[in-house]
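U., I forgot to send this yesterday:
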Amino acid sequence: MEEFKLNFYFNLYKDKVMQNRDVFRANFHKLHGKFNYLEELIIMIEKYQIKTYGCTLHSSEINDVKRRINDYNNGRDQAVYVRRCKR
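Result:
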């Protein structure tokens, strides 16, 4: 059951902003209560964010990452649209 909770919380928080560990712990305890593997969860989240984004996410960086992803998706969608229209 604890492994399921760990994976559930990881998937819930992996792409969210984590200002620092203390704030995350306080907010987590408020929302979910005591969790035995909270330190492991924090480490997993930090490793995932560093691997995926190059750093842990802060409030200003998440907007920049979302903007870059949207720009990429819009550019890809435009290229597909242009190719379809030329046929």
